[in-house]
Amino acid sequence: MIRSASAHWTGGGKDGTGSISSESGVLKEAPYGFNARFGDGRGTNPEELIGAAHAGCFTMALAFRLAKEGLTAESLDTTAKVAMEKEGEGFRIARVALTLRAKVPGTDEATFKALAEEAKAGCPVSKLLKAEITLETHFEG
């Protein structure tokens, strides 16, 4: 299975503008730029999208892990806070802090925490943050 998304950019780093789109159409030319990423400007940014992807992936992985134990969540609410820090001349994503509020009848806290840790480790987005990344370029000079 392959899913795709795309980005378009024009202009410089601080004064340029861009848009992000997804294959599903959920994102269709969603604006992003310097002020949306590093300030309070309108639009989205890569870190916000990584946070949304991680929160969604982890929460679904946990629902599947609970089901494997015969448990069904009444509610699972996850927030992902993505921290970006200065590193040399650029930046790096330093960490993602997941916060989960859950109501799961039929289990105890220790069992639930263990299942949540398994879901965190097994979630494909958690694994992505450690994955090999490849790049293919096509230059039109």
UniProtKB/TrEMBL annotation:
<dbReference type="InterPro" id="IPR003718">
    <property type="entry name" value="OsmC/Ohr_fam"/>
</dbReference>
<dbReference type="GO" id="GO:0006979">
    <property type="term" value="P:response to oxidative stress"/>
</dbReference>
<dbReference type="Pfam" id="PF02566">
    <property type="entry name" value="OsmC"/>
</dbReference>
<dbReference type="GO" id="GO:0004601">
    <property type="term" value="F:peroxidase activity"/>
</dbReference>
<dbReference type="InterPro" id="IPR036102">
    <property type="entry name" value="OsmC/Ohrsf"/>
</dbReference>
<dbReference type="InterPro" id="IPR015946">
    <property type="entry name" value="KH_dom-like_a/b"/>
</dbReference>
<feature type="region of interest" description="Disordered">
    <location>
        <begin position="1"/>
        <end position="24"/>
    </location>
</feature>
<protein>
    <submittedName>
        <fullName>OsmC family protein</fullName>
    </submittedName>
</protein>
<dbReference type="InterPro" id="IPR052707">
    <property type="entry name" value="OsmC_Ohr_Peroxiredoxin"/>
</dbReference>
<dbReference type="InterPro" id="IPR019904">
    <property type="entry name" value="Peroxiredoxin_OsmC"/>
</dbReference>
